[in-house]
Amino acid sequence: MSTYVISGVARGIGFEFVRQLSANPANTVFGLVRDKGAADKKYQAEGLSRKNIHILQADVTDYDALKATSEYVSGVTGGKLDYIIANHGAVSDLSAFDNLSNLAKDPVSLEQDLMESIKINVLGTISMFNLFMPLVLKGNGKKAIAISTGMADVDLVAKYDVQVSPTYAISKAALNMAVAKLSAVLREQGILLMTISPGFVDTGNYNRSLTPEQQKSVEGMVKGFARYAPHFKGAITPEESVRLTLSVLERSSIEAGDAGSWVSHYGNKQWL
Ligand SMILES: NC(=O)c1ccc[n+]([C@@H]2O[C@H](COP(=O)([O-])OP(=O)(O)OC[C@H]3O[C@@H](n4cnc5c(N)ncnc54)[C@H](OP(=O)(O)O)[C@@H]3O)[C@@H](O)[C@H]2O)c1
C-alpha cells in the first residue's frame, strides 16, 4: 500500500497519474487541483469515482491553501506520505509558440510571463515539497519527483534551435536546479528527490488554432525533434508517458546515484 500526493490532476498527465495509481485499491491518491468543483465533475464523467482518490483544492502559488492540503493528508494518513509527484506546470499562451527575441520587444509582458512561470513551476514546487516533506520523512516510499521537460536541456535547444516556449523552458531549467538543491539537503535524510521529463505527450495542448507564424514555430520544433531523434514519430499518449515515468520513479534510488538528477521517461537523457 502506498500513498501519493500529485498536483495538476484535473487533466492531462496528472489525471493519468491518478487513474493508473488509483487502479490499485491498496493505494491512496491525493490529487491537487485549482477548481475542485470542475475536477469532481470530470472524474465522475470519466468514471473515476474511486474511494481511494481524494481531490483537494489548492493553487500551488497559494501557500496557505497548500498547507491546508498537507494538513488534510496528514489527518487521513496519520502523518505519513510515501510519494510526492509535483506534476503541475504552466506554459502561457503569450509565450508558448513565440521566441525570446520577439517577446523581449515588450519587456513588461515578458517580465510578467517569466515571473508567473517561475512562481508556478519553481516556487510552487518548492512550497509543495517543503510542506509535504515532514510526512514523506515518516513514510515508507521516501521519494519526491517534479515533472520537468527536455525543453530545459541547454544542449538540445542550442543544437536544434528550439525557439518556442522560452519562459517555460527557463523556469523548468530553474526547477531542475531547485530540486537538485533540495536534494542536497534531503539526501542525507534518505529522501530521493529528482526531476523527470515525461516525453512529448499528447494532452491536447497543441490542438488549438495557431497563427501562421506560431504554426511555423511548432513545425520548426517538430523538425528539430526529428533531427534529434530520427525514431520520433510524434507525441506519445498520457498512458504510455505515465507508465514509463512511474517505472523510472520505482527503479530510481539514492544508492544508484539518482538523487538530485534530471532524467527522461526512459531514465536517461534521451528526451524523445
Ligand atoms: N505534455 C507534454 O508534452 C509535456 C512535455 C514535457 C513536460 N510536461 C510537463 O508535464 C506536466 C503535465 O503536463 P500536461 O501536458 O498534463 O499539462 P496540462 O494539460 O497543461 O496540465 C497542467 C496542469 O497543471 C495545473 N496547474 C497549472 N498552474 C497551476 C497552479 N498555479 N497551481 C496548481 N496547478 C496548476 C493545471 O491546472 P488547471 O487544470 O486548473 O489548469 C493542469 O491541471 C507539466 O509540468 C508539464 O510542464 C508536459
From TrEMBL:
One term of GO molecular function: oxidoreductase activity, acting on the CH-OH group of donors, NAD or NADP as acceptor
Family annotation (Gene3D superfamilies): NAD(P)-binding Rossmann-like Domain
Organism domain of life: Eukaryota
InterPro entries with a match to the protein in the record: NAD(P)-bd_dom_sf, SDR_enzymes, SDR_fam
Designated name of the protein: NAD(P)-binding protein
Organism from which the protein derives: Neoarthrinium moseri
